[in-house]
Design a protein that fits this description.
The complex is a heterodimer. By secondary structure, chain A is an all-alpha fold. Chain A has eight helices and no strands. By secondary structure, chain B is an alpha/beta fold. In chain B, helix 1 runs parallel beside helix 6. The chains are: A mainly alpha, B alpha/beta.
């Protein structure tokens, strides 16, 4: 019935190499790798976004192309380098400008673009790994999500309980495999 | 190509969701032959996996073939700017409709909701009715609907604790509820740590918390499993059939009688009528062919937007302005719940991950006319609800309460510490119809077949804003009493595109101001019945589905009793 197409079913290129580097640079600033664990790039958020744009988010591909180009042109205007080549402080400054829409210029939708990428980055980080992100359940570990269970006992709904973490994707859960 | 003429049937019913999927049971049991036209297909429990991206983020892309082609547009006032149009429809297609994945909250309305106008005038004077408000008393009372609420609760299965059985008040139920003839068929959903914590806080404030009723099995019911509390119930279908959508409760029973034939993937494009103003059947597309299903009676049971839209699209000699619209009432009295909320941050883990939203704690102390409105300058009020269930993306995408940026390493550290330490209190507020808020056909935007989509003309009223702010203040007090160290008010959500959409084919005795009579049949086309919240004239402060289902059963019962007069 529900003929789902999963991420990664085609290899069509969504991004140019430059666009891909730019997106990886953005998502790694939204959720950086640090002492609290792997970041967005490491868990596959950029791959999640790219495969979603091939499929369920097809209609948002043009917003990405325009937004990534705007980010790169802002970076070049300021430093002569592409966004991905900047140091992280410079990247954060430009991303903050986009987030807050502080510089209205050639690209009007910078805040909307920032929100779009942030939203999709969170989906890749904290969504079910079956969509290509949240590698090794690192996103769920970060926030302490105890994992998918088909049956939850009453004890597991008390406030003071320590819950054993399960690491299953929805597909594994439904098919009973581990 | 001319439509294929199908053999005549007693009843053609359009839409097998919460309303239509319920009405088929009494109709089929009475021996009427029903053809049910449904825009979507069938789902099985195995289709319902716990998948936040598919269910909550992408809104069931596998199930909105028709609905997503006709997402309504909206504008703020008659001359106001268009509002942003979402890229998904709030409801879905499928046998069982959105009851497949709703929260299952199954409240009854209160006596007051049926008599808002007269009760308000009696208690506060006519000036308490907001200017431009078109609210009327319902043509039936709570007492007349009570037997049907009862039938529905037992037919689909509702879990809950009565607060008022024939006047006997129980403080473990909702003390504000209107009298019921008996207990719920199942005990309430399981207690949960955080829900209990919030109930204790409410009790300390002198309020009256209770476990909200839900069409979810707390114990095995009707050969279906009890709830597994897996935590993907909100907008999720049930993998163990413990959520009592019509697809697993009433529809299979109706099919078993042999009197219901369901046509899935049937896209209805018009209801036909003859020169005398009687409806003759429904025209639909299926697999690119057009069919005409003649019937003695047509029951229109789509969602609120589609009910209005299909009537307006069904023009004929007898109804030049759209079916049943010779009084110009189709589309009027539109409203949806205004709602808002407050989120609270705690210094300890709440463990809200699992469960189901309807498993939380609710309050009606500030709903309806349960408190004195002399000082507040609005009528009605809100139900407060703390739901269980926190899915991971939703949990991580939390408010930062002004304590952290929204991204970067310090955000990451913040959500690591706090994703399990926040909770919302939702306020769902009674909404009333106004003369300048309505549905019609969009003059420019069309669906994929070239038919105009439904357009909402909406706007926030001052009384509504006051009610929402009042409820935010109560929600905040509740969270603080429970130990919240920070709170953050959620936006005020005005009426708009909603899963709780009311009006458009309002029910009332006066045909000058209403589309259907007190039994749910058209004032103009005598063999056309309309089911759904589109017939409701007030919203109450709670989810519509159980009332929609009680009304649907009552309309079906009336049709059975009056068959000769209506159908022949």
């Amino acid at each position: 019935m529900s003929a789902l197409r999963f991420a990664g079913t085609t290899n069509a290129e969504v991004f140019t190499p430059n666009e891909r580097h730019c997106l990886e640079a953005i998502v790694s600033r939204i959720i950086p790798a640090d002492t609290n664990g792997p970041g967005a790039v490491e868990v596959g958020c950029a791959l999640y976004i790219e495969s979603a744009l091939r499929d369920a988010y097809r209609s948002q591909k043009s917003a990405y192309s325009a937004g990534l180009a705007a980010l790169d042109s802002r970076a070049i205007e300021r430093t002569g380098k592409l966004f991905a080549a900047l140091d992280i402080n410079e990247q954060d400054r430009i991303l903050s400008e986009f987030e807050l829409n502080t510089r209205v210029g050639e690209y009007q939708d910078s805040a909307a673009f920032f929100e779009l990428v942030r939203r999709h980055t969170l989906e890749g980080m904290f969504g079910d790994p079956l969509y290509g992100g949240n590698a090794n359940f690192a996103g769920w570990d970060l926030i302490g999500y105890p994992g998918l269970r088909m049956y939850v006992t009453p004890e597991l709904q008390r406030m003071d309980v320590a819950i054993h973490r399960l690491r299953l994707s929805a597909k594994q859960l439904m098919h009973g495999s581990r | 190509m001319a439509p294929v003429n199908l053999p005549r049937t007693d009843v053609v019913l359009i839409g097998l969701g919460a309303a239509g999927g319920l009405a088929v049971l009494p109709l089929a049991r009475a021996g009427l032959k029903i053809v049910g036209l449904e825009a979507g297909g069938w789902f099985r429990s195995a289709d319902h996996r716990p998948d936040e991206i598919r269910n909550n983020i992408r809104h069931w892309p596998h199930a909105v073939q028709k609905a997503n082609q006709e997402i309504p547009t909206a504008r703020n006032g008659r001359d106001g700017p268009p509002l942003p149009r979402p890229d998904y429809h709030p409801m879905m297609n499928g046998v069982g409709g959105t009851s497949l994945h709703y929260w299952g909250q199954s409240w009854r309305l209160m006596q007051w909701d049926f008599k808002v106008r007269s009760e308000t005038i009696r208690r506060y004077g006519v000036s308490a009715i907001p200017p431009g408000c078109t609210v009327e008393d319902w043509p039936l009372s709570y007492e007349e609907l009570e037997p049907y609420y009862d039938k529905v609760e037992y037919a689909i299965g509702v879990s809950g604790k009565a607060g008022n059985v024939q006047g006997n008040i129980s403080r473990t139920g909702n003390v504000f509820e209107s009298p019921r003839q008996r207990e719920y068929p199942m005990p309430p959903l399981r207690a949960a740590g955080f829900a209990d914590h919030m109930a204790e806080a409410a009790s300390r404030l002198g309020w009256h918390p209770y476990s909200p009723p839900a069409a979810i099995n707390s114990v095995p019911y009707d050969k279906r499993s009890a709830c597994f509390y897996h935590g993907f119930c909100g907008s999720g279908g049930c993998p163990v059939n413990a959520k009592n959508s019509t697809a697993v409760s009433t529809i299979p029973q109706a099919i078993a009688t042999g009197n219901l034939k369901i046509v899935p993937y049937a896209h209805v494009i018009a209801i036909e009528s003859d020169a005398y103003g009687r409806v003759t059947g429904a025209r639909y597309l299926s697999d690119k062919r057009e069919y005409f299903q003649p019937a003695s009676v047509v029951l229109l049971a789509g969602y609120t937007y589609e009910n209005t839209r299909l009537l307006l699209l069904s023009k004929s000699k007898a109804y030049p302005r759209g079916l049943s619209n010779n009084h110009g009432q189709v589309g009027l009295h539109y409203m949806s719940h205004t709602r808002t909320g407050v989120v609270g941050l705690f210094s300890f883990d709440l463990n809200r991950w699992y469960g189901t939203p309807a498993q939380g704690t609710a309050l009606d102390d500030w709903a309806d006319d349960n408190f004195d409105h002399s000082e507040v300058e609005f009528i009605g009020g809100g139900n407060l609800l703390v739901p269980m269930e926190a899915k991971p993306i939703e949990a991580a995408n939390m408010s930062t309460f002004g304590k952290a940026p929204r991204w970067g390493s310090s955000w990451k550290a913040f959500v690591r510490e706090n994703a399990a330490r926040w909770a919302p209190v939702w306020a769902q507020i009674s909404t009333f119809p106004f003369e300048d808020r309505f549905l019609d056909l969009d003059p420019a935007v069309k669906d994929s077949l070239g038919y105009p989509v439904c357009r909402l003309t909406v706007g926030l009223k001052e009384t509504e804003e006051r009610a929402m702010r009042f409820m935010q203040e109560k929600a905040e007090r509740w969270l603080r009493e429970a130990g919240a160290i920070a709170t953050n008010q959620l936006p005020l959500f005005p009426i708009g595109l909603s899963t709780h959409a009311y009006g458009g084919t309002r029910m009332g005795e006066n045909p000058e101001r209403n589309v259907v009579n007190g039994w749910g049949f058209s004032h103009e086309a005598p063999n056309l019945g309309i089911l759904g919240a589109s017939t409701m004239g007030t919203s109450g402060a709670r989810n519509p589905t159980l009332t929609v289902q009680a009304l649907a059963w009552r309309t079906a019962d009336y049709l059975i009793r009056q068959w000769k007069f209506i159908a022949e």
